[in-house]
Amino acid sequence: MQWTDRIRQTKIILVVVATIIVVASLAVSRMLTRDLEVEERHKMEIWAEAMRTLNLADENTDLNLVLRVINDNNSIPVVVLDAKGHVQSARNVNVRGQSDADSVKKVNAMAQQLLAEGRFVRISLNDASKNEYIYVCYADSLMLQRLAIYPYVQLGIGLIFVLVALMALRTSKRAEQNKVWVGLSKETAHQLGTPISSLMAWTEVLKETHPDDDLIPEMENDIKRLQLIADRFSKIGSLPEPLPASLNEVMAHAIDYIDKRTPKRINLVTQFPSEDIILNLNASLFEWVIENLCKNAVDAIGEQPGTITLSMQKTAQKVIIEISDTGKGIRKKDIGNVFRPGFTTKKRGWGLGLSLAKRIVEEYHQGKIMVKSSEVGIGTTFLIELKA
């Protein structure tokens, strides 16, 4: 549990750090964009003054510097309007219409929009009393437009890279977990095989030497149980093929096993439909799921009296199984972790029961298992959905 909390805290720290980096990147980019906007504004003021000088020039005016300033603007779109708002000239404006008149109309619309946005420099041509002036309207240069968009493109590429990396890590982790599951299951089944065979031989010897001993049948039952456990582990390490089976019988068999090993203070209640439900199941493994859920419910109830309720209902497309208890419940922050391998709220436990149940339900039976509801001090309800 502490390990899971530590991982969650690490993820939160990483998200916060990533957010700070992204915000800082956008802030720096915005600052650079504003600086470039100011610089382009100054350039336009110089360019407008050059236009003013050109309009006021006479035969004695040296126009070399003026023409150089005007011709050096090869990046900033500019539209010059007279005092009446008519287009006088345009530079670096890529507007094409179906005709010259249509092009002029589009350029004029662009200039009017720039005027409305306040992106212009007003230059008086003569004395202010004569009211002769021009408007030099300008838009963002291509470099400024790219600089404004670039941080978001960079952010998008970064997010895609992070998502791909997370998916790759998740896939790699899942593949590694599957290898561990398979290896552990096969090794467990193999290790159980030898002592089970020896126990079977010893029971035969005991039958011959003590044929009337009442404990021998109980020993045989325990050996059968061990054989069942070994069989389950061997199936976990492979892909067992589900076969048509009665869900009612599978549930009843699992409940009967749990009921015999449950304290009398805990009441098992079943709510099953009268009609038999036939599904494609691996009966042995699915019984294991029910046993794990019921054992967890018993542990959750603890030393107090309580009730475990198992219900089934069938719809047109699915079968729903619910297992509820009146135990201590699960904290909201832990609900998302209950199916993770290694997570447990018990002082003694491996945290594998629910992850094993999830694997059996979802991978072997193409169903779903989830925590339907849980409240601390009231109880928990697990829900299983299977295709009808």
TrEMBL record:
<feature type="domain" description="Histidine kinase">
    <location>
        <begin position="187"/>
        <end position="388"/>
    </location>
</feature>
<keyword id="KW-0067">ATP-binding</keyword>
<keyword id="KW-0472">Membrane</keyword>
<dbReference type="GO" id="GO:0005886">
    <property type="term" value="C:plasma membrane"/>
</dbReference>
<dbReference type="Pfam" id="PF02518">
    <property type="entry name" value="HATPase_c"/>
</dbReference>
<dbReference type="InterPro" id="IPR050980">
    <property type="entry name" value="2C_sensor_his_kinase"/>
</dbReference>
<keyword id="KW-1133">Transmembrane helix</keyword>
<dbReference type="InterPro" id="IPR005467">
    <property type="entry name" value="His_kinase_dom"/>
</dbReference>
<keyword id="KW-0597">Phosphoprotein</keyword>
<dbReference type="GO" id="GO:0005524">
    <property type="term" value="F:ATP binding"/>
</dbReference>
<keyword id="KW-0808">Transferase</keyword>
<feature type="transmembrane region" description="Helical">
    <location>
        <begin position="12"/>
        <end position="32"/>
    </location>
</feature>
<feature type="transmembrane region" description="Helical">
    <location>
        <begin position="149"/>
        <end position="169"/>
    </location>
</feature>
<dbReference type="InterPro" id="IPR003661">
    <property type="entry name" value="HisK_dim/P_dom"/>
</dbReference>
<protein>
    <recommendedName>
        <fullName>histidine kinase</fullName>
        <ecNumber>2.7.13.3</ecNumber>
    </recommendedName>
</protein>
<keyword id="KW-0547">Nucleotide-binding</keyword>
<keyword id="KW-0812">Transmembrane</keyword>
<keyword id="KW-0418">Kinase</keyword>
<dbReference type="InterPro" id="IPR004358">
    <property type="entry name" value="Sig_transdc_His_kin-like_C"/>
</dbReference>
<dbReference type="GO" id="GO:0000155">
    <property type="term" value="F:phosphorelay sensor kinase activity"/>
</dbReference>
<dbReference type="InterPro" id="IPR036890">
    <property type="entry name" value="HATPase_C_sf"/>
</dbReference>
<dbReference type="InterPro" id="IPR003594">
    <property type="entry name" value="HATPase_dom"/>
</dbReference>
